[in-house]
Amino acid sequence: MNLSVRDWDLIGTNRPFIGLANFVELFGDSLFLTALVNTAIIAFGVMLLTIPTAMVLAGLIHYRTRSRFAGFYETSVFIPHVVSLVPAAMAWKWIFDAKLGPLNALIVSLGGSPQSWLFDPNLALFSIIVLCSWQALGYAVLIYLVGFRNLPTSVYEAARLDGASGIQAFRFLSIPLLKPITLYVSVVTLVSGFNVYAQAFVLASDSQGAPGRQVRVLVLDMLENAFRNYRVGYAAAEAMVLLLIVLILTGAQFALLREKGNSK
């Protein structure tokens, strides 16, 4: 917070106090606003894609797999979460490659047209969401598995006796009972999405190879301002905005859950 209200070039010892000037300049900076919008789209896109997918996969692993194979499926799903970000991004960069990537090869084989996944800004944004969701999925699945294994079996037995199908039990029992798990996963996924950096840095390079230029994200903008433009105070103001956004979103999610809990 102290640096965000000062003007510092990273090298000198003089750090004059400039008040809210950095924050005022931020919201007139088109690059910052673009980075903020892109980051928000990625964060919410990852959350909306990860949560339902993770819940369904966890339910399938819990209810539809034999116990001796459950560990194999859990490990397989969790592996992307522990893979280093840069190697994973490089692998997905090859998958999305316009000329040599298997994704475009599949699209062409189905009669479609190849896409510039990494050079079209909108498609590059979508590509980052897919990569981030793939990496976040394993952790979310394991957390949901913990939730499924702690659900009261008596409730499901009663629903089965009343003639409820598996899908109905999942919709009307599992989803409501797993709301605390969903809250936790949504907060973790959303915060992680707002801190996206390596995926955009590697995946969304421009046609000249400059990293991250096709999709500018908030952390990349912060680092460029701090260590390339030597505007540490300005970058610190961006960090404070990011912190405030994360706190507001987290508080809103907890308030929403509490309101739903009180309405019952």
TrEMBL record:
The chain crosses the membrane at residues 31-60, 72-95, 123-146, 181-204, 232-257. Residues 36-253 form the ABC transmembrane type-1 domain. Its main location: membrane. It comes from the Bacteria. Keywords: Cell membrane, Membrane, Sugar transport, Transmembrane, Transmembrane helix, Transport. Belongs to the binding-protein-dependent transport system permease family. This is Multiple sugar transport system permease protein. It comes from Devosia subaequoris. The lineage of its organism: Bacteria, Pseudomonadati, Pseudomonadota, Alphaproteobacteria, Hyphomicrobiales.
